[in-house]
Model the fold of this input.
Amino acid sequence: MKAGKILSGIVLQGLIAGLGTCLGALLVITLGRMRPGTLSLLLGLASGIMTAVIIFDLLPSSLRYGTPKAALAGFMGGIVLMLVLDLGINTFAPSTLKEMDYLKMGYLIATGIALHDLPEGLAIAAGFATAEKLGPILVLAIGLHNIPEGMATAAPLRHGGLSAGRVLAINVLISLVTPIGTFFGLALVENYHSFIGPLLAFAAGAMTYIVLGELAPESRRNSRPLAYLGMLAGLVLILLLSLTV
Done:
C-alpha cells in the first residue's frame, strides 16, 4: 500500500510538470500575445534551469549510477531522438508560417511536443530513483520548460481560429504524456536498476538539444540582456534548490 502511494505521488508530480504546458496555453488565451522582452526572460529562465540540471545533477548522477560508456550512449541517444523529432517536424512544416495554415502548424507543434514529453517523464522517474532525489528538481525544470511549449502550441491554434476551450483541451492531452512517461519509467527502473544511469544521461542529452537548439537561440531573439538575466536566474535557482532539496 505504501509503495502504491509513493508510485502515485511520483506520477502525480509528473502530471504537475506536464501541466506547465496548460499554463503556457492559458497565458496565451488570457493575455494574448506576450511582450517580446517577457518571452526572452521566460525562455532564458528555462534555459538556465535546464542547463544547471544537466551539468550539476543529471550527468554526475548518470556517471554515479552507471559506466562512462553507458552514460555517453544514453546522452547521444537523447540527442539523436530529439534531432529525429525536430527533423520530422521540419520535413512536414515549412520554415515560415506564411507557407501553411496556422492550425496545421499548431497541430504539428503539439505532436512534436507530445512526442518529446515522453522522455521527459522517463527522466523524472529516473530522478526519483536516485539516492540524491533529483525528481523534484526535474519536475520544476521540466514544468518551467513546458510553459513556453504550451505557448508555442496555443498561439498558432488561436490565430487559426480554434476556440479557447479546444486549445486548452489539446494542451491537457499533451500534459498527460509526461505522467505516462513517468509511470513507464518507474516500472523500468524498478525492474532494471542498470537503466537508471543511461536514463539520466538520456534525459541530459534530450535537454541539451532542447537548450542549444531551441530555448537559448529563441530567448536571445528579442532581448539578449533579458535572456541572459533569465539564464543567470535559472542557474542560481537550481544551485539553491540543490542545497536544500
The longest helix spans residues 36-65. Residues 95-100 have pLDDT under 50 and may be disordered. Residues 2-244 form one domain. The radius of gyration is 17 Å.
